[in-house]
Please model this.
Amino acid sequence: MIQKITPNLLDRLEKVAATRRESIRSSKSDIVIPGERWYVSAGGSDDADGMTPATAWRTLDRVNRAELSPGDCVLFHRGDLYRGVLNAKNGVIYSSYGHGPKPILCASPFDGAKTGKWLPTDVENIYVYSEKITDDIGCIVFDGGRSHAVKATVDFKNNINLTDGKPFASWRDLDGDLVFFHDLGGANLQGTEENSTLYLRSNRGAPPDRFFSMEFSVRTNGIRIMGDNVRINNLKVMYCGCHGIGAGTTSGLHVDWCEFEWIGGSVQFYRDGRPTRFGNAVEIYGGCTDYTVENCWINQAYDAGITHQFSAGESGACIMKDVTYKGNLIENCIYSIEYFLGKAADGSERRIEHVRITDNIMRFCGSGFGKQRPDKGPDVHIKSWDHINPGCDMVFRSNIFDRGAHDLLHIACEDAASMPEISRNVFIQQEGAGFARLGVIPTSSVRYTEEDITKSGLTDNVFYSVE
Model:
């Protein structure tokens, strides 16, 4: 049942992934716009009316202040970069116009290689940045993603850097090339102009001498969903310390032909001085209906590429219905897809129904910059945790699950009837690595062996091992 993959087949897989990536990156905007069109360009003016390419607005702030109606469409000029956060309003479409690469919505406030100065401190190889960034920084990305820094994630009660387990009392303890500490005055998610300082260790000279660009993933979403029936089409979202797209309970969210890179890594909260970091490319936290993410390329998310989730211990009903994840390429995330629904504290109804996860290519879970997270080992391509996840009509079909640092799946539910159909997928895993945690909670581990796969009932799939 488990076949050793051949070099030719691995090469074909690389080409299939590359073809899908290029198809997504080169996709054109071809959408029906029932309402008004509004244009945004890096060469525009916020004093213009925004109604034609010649009178385009310039900034995300101007877009956020606009009075838009359901059916309207905001079109961003391709090849341009827009800094800030987009507030996506009820019933509005956000897409692109022109030619070239997708427009970039960039949460990084500025390029640290061009703005401000990196000044030497009295500790060799440690530099302090002149500019104040008051929101917690999750990552620093160099040269468009060729390399990145590692965050010193400090447990302030015990004075330990959880990233490497070493003692950490102050920025003077930065250890190793391209490790940074964002000092916000202790266990804070936000600092002040007087109390927010960034330190970076660089063992090969001043950072601007090493890198032509330095972008900061600050603690915010790239796009905030502010209503129902929002469509995000043909945009690229980058450098968000929280989520690329973040939504609470919503209906009709449709994300297609978009790109997401370098998402997450900021501290979500501190509990007794100990930090927890987070960050998903596309997230709904709460109930959802008619939620679709398709034909997107997602690369380098600290947590999940795509997720719908709601935790246990909270009150109120939560229904997750008509969810589709299709045709995506998800690479180098800790979890490619995450979903979970916990038990309500007050006994309210919780339900997941009619979910389709089909024709996605998911590669290298547990890789990417999320490897620096202190909690090691839970990474998989589909992650449900051991929540109750009461579901029906859930189908995970015709996907490629291509290698993971630990396992490939973690799928749990409160009863066997809630397990999804898992069929006609291709599983590829390193020899000696794990396969899955499956079944009724608490889940049990399934090894990547013919005997265990047969026992798990997943024989209607194809399995390959990689030396």
Summary: The CA atoms of residues 249 and 286 lie 4 Å apart. The radius of gyration is 22 Å. The chain has a mean pLDDT of 96. The chain has three domains: 2-28+220-466, 31-106, 118-216.
